[in-house]
Amino acid sequence: MKRFTNHKEAWGDFLDVKVCTKKINIVRLQDKTVVISTVTDAYNPFERKFERTREILKQFVNTKARIEIFTKSDLVLRDQDLFAQIPNIKIGISLNTLDDGIRKILEPGASRIQNRINAIKTLNDAGFDTYIFLSPMFPGITDFKAILGECKTYTQKFYFENLNLRGAYCPRIMNYIRKYRPDLLSLYDDIYRFKNTEYWEILEREIANYCTGNNISFGTYFYHEKIKNQR
């Protein structure tokens, strides 16, 4: 993360390959949950070469730790041999659009949409505990019903997270909206300049009603700032 490093590059324009020869203290993590990855994607394109994530997973083979992975990459399929040797593992694929044109602009480093859908299907068919994580949900752009309609036969659980605009990420997204979706500019101003949470409150109710009505298991992770301030 940029705030913990001395990088001068813009967020998303640099990458550090971490090298650690010290083994993980597996005993300390027995019956604990280990989440990979909450900040950066553990299966970003450089993982294909450096295999940092794979080396970590090898240490959790035949342990009692609960391992949870979520990623935007179909490279996750490479490690199915290790997943099969980890008794308690859950794998999620992040998806926020079915439009690969949008993906190319907003998530250029992520796998193609169809590749991600194929990955969740492959993992689910192989018997792994899987889910789709709709994150981040872009106001006026992410069609959650379309995504659920496309993927509900491939996984049994869906989670939802709203788009947060912080730091250098904010001008990038706002520039995209001005250029490609000017019709949404007033909505984004209302949400992110004037801090109006009504859009998310309505959307959260829509998600709950739709998922409940269609017997879909779901969870929502909205209102980050409110949660943060309540800690």
Description:
This protein has one domain: pyruvate-formate lyase- activating enzyme, CATH 3.80.30. Strand 4 (129-137), helix 7 and strand 5 form a beta-alpha-beta unit. The protein contains eleven helices and six strands. A six-stranded parallel sheet has the order 1-2-3-4-5-6, with helices on one face. It is globular, with a radius of gyration of 18 Å. The two termini are 22 Å apart. It has helices spanning 26-29, 47-50, 52-58, 80-83, 100-106, 113-125, 144-151, 169-180, 185-193, 198-213, 224-230, and strands spanning 33-36, 66-71, 89-94, 129-137, 157-162, 217-221. The longest helix has 16 residues, at 198-213. It has 231 residues and is of the alpha/beta class. Residues 227-231 have low confidence and may be disordered.
What are the SSEs and their pairings?
Blueprint: H1 26-29, E1 33-36, H2 47-50, H3 52-58, E2 66-71, H4 80-83, E3 89-94, H5 100-106, H6 113-125, E4 129-137, H7 144-151, E5 157-162, H8 169-180, H9 185-193, H10 198-213, E6 217-221, H11 224-230
Parallel strand pairs: 1-2, 2-3, 3-4, 4-5, 5-6
Describe the structure concisely.
With 231 residues, the protein is of the alpha/beta class. It has helices at 26-29, 47-50, 52-58, 80-83, 100-106, 113-125, 144-151, 169-180, 185-193, 198-213, 224-230, and strands spanning 33-36, 66-71, 89-94, 129-137, 157-162, 217-221.
Entry keywords:
single chain; 231 residues; alpha/beta; 6-stranded parallel beta sheet; 11 helices; globular; disordered C terminus
